[in-house]
Amino acid sequence: MSDHSRTGPQPVAYLTRVQSFSASHRLHSVELSDEENKSVFGKCNNPNGHGHNYRAEVTVRGKINRATGMVINLTDLKSCIEEVIMGPLDHKNLDQDVPYFANVVSTTENLAVYIWDNLAKVLPVGELYEVKIYETDKNMVVYRGE
Ligand SMILES: Nc1nc2c(c(=O)[nH]1)N=C([C@H](O)[C@H](O)COP(=O)(O)OP(=O)(O)OP(=O)(O)O)CN2
Ligand SMILES: [Zn+2]
């Protein structure tokens, strides 16, 4: 049996915070012709764009600090999520308002990478383990920094 007392090993836990946000976008690649864009992205290439109510699940992995009982203080994780997700992305047009997506297609895959890269820069403790993004109730991407 493992010993998680004061002198035993520090157990590792995975802490997840869920955050919803709304954004619009259009799937369009600068590397493809207009015809190719229409063919690949179909209705999602409509110049008027469309919107989603996204759901992000951010998971941090780390040892449970003996003194605090925490992997990361949820207050700090919430601040990071505000800075990386809510500020830049909520109620924004991803392609027009977020410089990263000027030349990167705003798929859920790329959105997960964007969120991962920026969260990794600001997390104070623990290690970012997983970013999960639901674009719709039916479509979800998991990114683990690989
Ligand atoms: N690999 C990916 N493919 C597609 C993405 C994506 O992010 N990665 N995104 C889109 C569109 O942006 C859009 O989100 C798809 O919307 P829609 O087809 O309406 O969504 P649902 O599958 O949930 O709805 P249905 O009820 O099945 O129509 C397209 N492809
Ligand atoms: Zn979409």
Fold and architecture overview:
With 146 residues, the chain is of the alpha+beta class. It has a single domain (12-143), classed as Tetrahydropterin Synthase, Chain A, CATH 3.30.479.10. 29% of the residues lie in helices and 29% in strands. The chain contains 4 helices and 5 strands. The chain has a 5-stranded mixed beta sheet with strand order 3-1-2-4-5. α2 (74-89) crosses α4. The longest helix is centred in the middle third of the chain and has 16 residues, at 74-89. The mean pLDDT is 95. The ligand Nc1nc2c(c(=O)[nH]1)N=C([C@H](O)[C@H](O)COP(=O)(O)OP(=O)(O)OP(=O)(O)O)CN2 binds next to α4.
Feature tags:
29% helix, five-stranded mixed β-sheet, alpha+beta, 146 residues, Tetrahydropterin Synthase, Chain A, binds zinc ion, binds the ligand Nc1nc2c(c(=O)[nH]1)N=C([C@H](O)[C@H](O)COP(=O)(O)OP(=O)(O)OP(=O)(O)O)CN2, 29% strand, 5 strands
